[in-house]
Design brief:
378 residues; alpha/beta; Aspartate Aminotransferase, domain 1; Aspartate Aminotransferase, domain 2; 2 domains; seven-stranded mixed sheet; 43% helix; 16% strand; globular; binds pyridoxal-5'-phosphate
Length: 378
């Protein structure tokens, strides 16, 4: 099948996307996507969304710059700031918009942007939209050779310029964690800012699921984060969080003044899920446990993985066609859905990406390991 035809070839979901999902009418164990905490379709979120829908209907509100605001979105920002333990938070209509909104708000006419070579397209898009000069730094250079990263900044930053470093907290396909503390050091040295898209880290890293800041213990007023409610938090919508002086810039940015800030039922669902998680850490603890168990089992099969406690395990074992065949066969023969992806960070053969969720059982994980064994022990 051609790659173009593959893009047109998809199975249809028949219910919420969790560890068990209906695909083309059949029950399948799902390792694709990002429902890390298994909260999609959670009753507290559905009830909150239904109530908001009944009260406000489906229509979105206009931008706040016109002097009106929806109280659910304002509450979302307060609850998000509490959830993330930051001074402030600000919402965006989609996770994809969080990075362009934050990056444009944090960029001045003397900013030089340093964007990870392997990051989500929304960061690249946001950086390009500023019209300011952009450098692409080598992915993981901050882990492998921090001095080389510093030299790169020294060689490229012009007099009078300030750097803005932009990266994913967890890279969505590779599942590794960015060396954020290294960038905080560089931001301190060069009077810069660090922006982290924590879409894949929120709900996953840290005892409270706060993401890379909690994982590394970062407490710096030079760092601002963005994320989406569409992954671990099971809904839809973007969020920016960090020190008030950054969030205030996002609030008054041209993008925020020219767009509505989100779907009200989804905002209500996100509030309910964050409150739920602040009261009950069991989904986070279960996810951490599943990550440990699955990564150990996969390594015992000979797969080498970076030592990061992320939900995502990615590997290549053959050609593009081998990987595509594995994805097809596991679905047809074992009722297992996993992703073969050639998104940014993969070579031409692509990568097999497996995401473990909090609602996977030991039986699910054993079943997957048995299905993978013939491919990986060749
Ligand atoms: C790192 C990152 N940022 C932003 C997004 C966009 O989020 P959403 O799909 O909720 O708009 C994604 C989605 O894949 C992502 O992986």
């Amino acid at each position: 099948m051609s790659k173009a035809a593959e893009l047109e070839d998809f199975a249809l979901y028949g219910g919420p996307v969790k560890a068990e999902v209906i695909l083309d009418g059949k029950e399948v164990v799902n390792y694709g996507g990002c429902s890390y905490l298994g909260l999609t379709g959670h009753p507290v979120a559905e009830a909150a969304a239904t109530k908001a829908l009944e009260q406000y209907g489906l229509a979105a509100s206009i931008a706040r710059a016109y002097g009106v605001a929806n109280p659910v979105l304002l509450e979302l920002e307060q609850v998000a700031a509490r959830f993330f333990g930051t001074e402030a938070a600000f919402c965006a209509a989609a996770g994809y918009l969080a990075s362009p909104l934050a990056i444009s708000a944090l960029t001045d006419t003397n900013t030089r942007l340093y964007v990870d070579q392997v990051c989500h397209h929304s960061l690249v898009f946001g950086a390009q939209a500023t019209g300011q000069p952009i450098e692409r730094y080598t992915h993981n250079l901050g882990w492998d050779d921090p001095e080389a990263l510093r030299d790169f900044v020294l060689q490229t930053l012009r007099p009078g310029e300030k750097p803005l470093f932009a990266m994913d907290g967890i890279t969505g396909l590779l599942g590794d964690i960015s060396p954020v503390p290294e960038f905080v050091r560089l931001a301190d040295e060069f009077d810069g800012i660090v922006y982290v898209d924590d879409a894949h880290a929120v709900g996953v890293l840290g005892d409270n699921g706060r993401g890379t800041a909690e994982y590394f213990g970062i407490d710096s007023d030079r760092v601002c984060f963005g994320a989406t409610f569409s992954k671990a938090l099971g809904g839809l919508g973007g969020v920016i969080f960090g020190p008030e002086h950054f969030v205030a810039r996002a609030r008054s940015s041209a993008m925020a003044r020219g767009s509505n800030l989100g779907s009200i039922p989804h905002a209500a669902a996100a509030i309910a899920l964050m409150e739920h998680l602040m009261a009950d850490k069991a989904p986070i603890q279960k996810l951490h446990r599943n990550i440990r168990v699955f990564k150990t089992l996969l390594q015992e099969l000979g797969v080498s993985l970076p030592a990061f406690p992320t939900s995502i395990s990615s590997f290549a074992f053959g050609s593009y066609d081998d990987h595509a065949a594995m994805q097809r066969n596991l679905l047809q023969d074992h009722g297992i859905f996993l992703c073969h992806s050639n998104y940014t960070g993969a070579g031409p053969e692509g990568l097999i990406r497996i995401a473990v969720f909090a609602d996977h059982s030991d039986d699910h994980l054993d079943h997957l390991i048995r299905a993978l064994t013939p491919y990986l022990s060749k």
